[in-house]
Amino acid sequence: MYADQRAVERKAEASGSSRLWDRLTQQSGLYCNTGLNQDQVEFLSQRRHVYLLPSGCLNVSAINGRNLDYIAESIHRALTTSL
User: Fold this and answer.
1) Separation CA 23–CA 46 (nearest Å)
2) Which stretch of DSSP H or E encloses residue 32?
3) Cα dist. 65→41, 58, 72, 81 in Å?
4) Which of UniProt's keywords are assigned here (predicted)?
5) What are 9-29's pLDDT values in tens digits?
6) By C-alpha distance, which of 29, 38, 28, 32 is closest to 71?
7) Are 56 and 36 in contact (CB under 8 A)?
8) How far apart are CA 83 and CA 77, in angstroms?
9) What is the DSSP string of 40-54?
10) What does the alpha-carbon distance between residue 77 and residue 70 come to, in Å, rounded to a whole number?
């Protein structure tokens, strides 16, 4: 699971996100707190169909090679889109 978290961090940084993504790799367990606010979480679920807990926690066990790029891009968009 750590590898998945690290992969999301690398992809998000590569997409130009200025956000510090080390919080993804410093946490362990099935969920990690992304630090996204409620508007960003709603953006992800309503516009990108990426579902987090209302608190901004991401289920990292759902990340795989097929959706990794999409999740990282979606998080980047949630951070950079005017909501």
Assistant:
1) 24
2) strand 31-33
3) 22, 16, 12, 25
4) Aminotransferase, Pyridoxal phosphate, Transferase
5) 677 667 666 555 666 667 777
6) 32
7) yes
8) 10
9) HHHHIIIII-----T
10) 10
The domain spans of the chain are: 2-80
Q: Are 44 and 72 in contact (CB under 8 A)?
A: no
Asked whether 16 and 76 are in contact (CB, 8 A), the reply is yes
The type of residue at 40 is Q
Distances (CA, A) of 73 to 10, 28, 29, 42: 11, 22, 23, 15
* CATH ID of 2-80, from 3.90.1150.10, 3.40.1170.60, 2.30.130.10, 3.40.1190.10: 3.90.1150.10
pTM value?
0.76
